[in-house]
Amino acid sequence: MQLTQRHIDALTKAETLMFHSDFCPYLELKTLLPNVTPQARSQFRTLFTNYYGLNTGGLTQDFKDKYFAILHSGEIFKNQKPQFDSILLDLHKIPRKKGDKAMPFSFVSKLVAIHDEKSPIYDRHVLNFFGEQAPPATTPMTGRINWYVGFLNQVATDYAEWSQDARVTPILTNLKNRDQQLAQCDVIRLMDFLVWKVGNQKLL
Questions:
Q1: Where are the alpha helices (DSSP H) in 20-140?
Q2: Which domain holds residue 41?
Q3: How many CB atoms neighbour CB 185 within 10 A?
Q4: Domain tally for the chain?
Q5: Are 8 and 162 in contact (CB under 8 A)?
Q6: pLDDT (tens digit, 9 = 90+) per residue, 7-49?
Q7: How many helices (H) and strands (E) does the chain have?
Q8: Residue 203 pLDDT grade (very low, low, confident, very high; cuts 50, 70, 90)
Q9: Residues 68/45, Cβ–Cβ less than 8 Å
Q10: Distance between the two ends of the chain, CA-based, in angstroms?
């Protein structure tokens, strides 16, 4: 996707509105992730749940238990590639509180992204920024998953290209200057923060 001036203005404004609370929980999660002690795992789960909204969407305790089991399983990647399809299918089997089943695209992107900073996050704000729509629920499951993986790959490619854009680099520099740990994050993750803020603040 080609960035218009409208998008640049929104990203610029988003950076000025960024609070420590927007990214510090993520930085803490990255610190906690390698710690396998029960206390650290409990802290990680609570923080991750609150930061990424796992208490929304009608998710059951069974779903959350399975979700974190996968997250800490060490079996997310095969040949260094995220196994989006198998993770989605495993979690899709677990009904939500109202008894229906959903394809947890957003939550799975966050599960993978906490391990791989080059893997972008998917949510409604990203869709809106890119002017995209997810396939309807009536689309065959394979088609929906293929679209999702393809879209995430395109987002990652675009974020990486945008980070080299002379209009975007000053925005990223300002963001990095906010925190030493943040400055070490991959540009994909930094773009995640900015695009989320654009959507959250309705800047487009």
A1: 20-32, 38-52, 61-71, 84-92, 105-113, 124-130
A2: 5-200
A3: 21
A4: 1
A5: no
A6: 999 999 999 999 999 999 999 999 999 999 999 999 999 999 9
A7: 11, 2
A8: very high
A9: yes
A10: 15
Tokens 């989006």 belong to which residue? 84
Q: What is the DSSP string of 57-84?
A: TT--HHHHHHHHHHHTSS-SEETTEE-H
Enter the DSSP assignment of 123.
S
Q: Cα separation of 86 and 102, whole Å?
A: 15
CA torsion angle 136 139 145 146 (round to 10): -110
Give buried/exposed letters for 107-118 (b at 16+ CB in 10 A, else e).
Answer: bbbbbbbbebbe
Question: Interhelix angle for 169-176 vs 187-200, to 10°?
Answer: 90
Select from 106, 89, 93, 98 the least CA-distant residue to 58.
Answer: 98
Residue range 154-191, pLDDT digits in tens: 999 999 999 999 999 999 999 999 999 999 999 999 99
CA distance 110 to 120: 8
pLDDT of residue 196: 97
d(CA 138, CA 118): 30
Q: What is the pLDDT of residue 159?
A: 98
